Amino acid sequence: MVRSIRAVKRDLNDAWLRGLRPPEKGRLEVWDTRVGGLMLRLTPTGAATWSVRARTHDGKRTRPTLGTWPGLGIAEARKRAPAHLAAIHSGADPVAQKRAIRARREDQPTVALRVAEWLVARETDPAKPLKPRTAAEYRRTMERDVLPRIGTRSLRETTREDWTRLVAAKRREAPAMASLLYRCASAFLGHAEAHGWITSSPLPRKGLAAIAPPPAPRERVLSDGELRAVWDASAQLNPRPRAFVRILILTATREMEVADVAAGEVHVSMERWMIPGKRTKNRLPYTVPLCPLALAEVSAIWPDHVGEVAFDWRLLGAIGGGGFRGFSKLKAKLDALSGVTDWRWHDLRRTARTGMTRLGVSREHAEAAINHVSGRSKLERTYDRHDHAEEVLMALARWQAHVADLITTSAVEEPPIHRHRS
Question: Which segments constitute the Core-binding (CB) domain (predicted)?
């Protein structure tokens, strides 16, 4: 075995190399006698790297690496060395070229840097800022699926294959999340193109259907019996999670609209909940009636120091600063208590929408009751400014009355109903 000396020359083979002992300090350079300039450098940590050493035309010494041993054996190293030596002798300097490429990359902003700039720009856009929930979803998606893989790369050097590979990998893991990743990445790259960070977006503009087709719309609607079981099970919860579940059932609103309900939005004397446009999906303000059942839940969570509560005090938050969170944990507990499974929070909204149709509410008024603008043309929305406020209140009041009847009478199996998608 070779002792810890600084340099040695011999006819190398892999068996002999396996017997090498790392030096206690410094480096051990083992030169091959078959191919001039080929050597293996061994460090005290045991790292072994193949390289060739030669001089460029201007007399400078250069030492490009070929790979690491034992992954790259002596036979393959001997095959690669002549091409590198020939390139150096013809005037190339591989080491200088790598340094130049690295320097160019350092001068070009990375994907991570541009993503951060994009999120700040969208969150502070005076014309149409991202909602906090959307911004958080975008940030979470990019940090989870993009930045760990290509975050350190120069944005300009990324290719279509880089981005489509990310989406394809996500699609194999979670198809619904792949669709979200595509939309998020497409929004980022569109912004990058518009601001001159890249010449054109690597993602195809109409590639969603081919690369990450969204999953089929859900059609789950809870039966009257299931709805009553969920309501009854919520009685075993603490006041805030119970209020979250019951207000969600009664108002047909979205879970984040309920989760972040603020004291200033609730007008108890008027029996109204007025959600500002900044908190709705379509940015339109939305007024919801509060029946006695809903008001009872509001009363149970209303803070004692009511005179000191600010307008934006979150009623369902543990300390008022933030809204209700822990949706998955609450849902799992509710499933166990109620015995009703295979449903999501948004399915309660679809259940209410479908129930309104069953109760005789017109399609137009039922859609307005859940703050939808779908079904109306752009021209119609421009010239017909009637907001159907009274009809909305009546539609929701009819649904709330149905829920009240449901929980105070014995559960019966309802007739088949049309499954309305929302």
Answer: 109-193
